[in-house]
Amino acid sequence: MSNIIPLISSGTAGPLGVLHLPRLWLKASLGAAGKLHSDYPAIGAGYDQMVLDGIGIDKGDFEAFIRDSKPSYIELESWILQQKGGSLDQDAVEKLNAAIVGYIHADATRTDILAAAGRSDDGTIKDAVNLNNLDDWATFHAAELK
Fold it and tell me: What is the mean pLDDT of residues 117-130?
């Protein structure tokens, strides 16, 4: 397979409880293998950087670990814990998760995503997690099923 669209939601957390981390692992892993769909950055400036900043992991170190070790998701979480002295600051994780869940896209972004997904903008979907899910699903459908 090549040009894979990452379908893990930003609203998904692994055992460490960090939202978006499984998606970041998937995107970075696919990017390192040259298999990530071109519409997606391996590590972008939005949620990706929010997660790295929120758990105190350097982007360069993260990229190098993914590229060099090709870790499973559980191996990534173990590496993160090693970098953080065995545990994460749970207050920081809660603050990060709240920021992810609470992020609202700009009106124009919302309108564009909903139009591409074929859904009218009735104002009921505003959060970025659900809008990004719709965007992923619409991209997958257009690229893989038509």
Answer: 95
**Distance separating alpha carbons of residues 24 and 8, to the nearest angstrom:** 9
What is the predicted pLDDT for the residue at 145? 79
Q: Kindly give the residue spans of alpha helices, DSSP state H, lying in the chain.
A: 21-32, 47-55, 59-69, 73-83, 90-102, 107-117, 128-144
- List b or e across 118-141, with b for residues whose CB sees 16 or more CB atoms inside 10 angstroms: eeeeeeebebbbbbbbbbbebbee
pTM of this prediction? 0.95
CA 85 to centroid of chain Cα atoms: 24
Please count the residues of the chain. 146
* DSSP 8-state symbol, 20: T
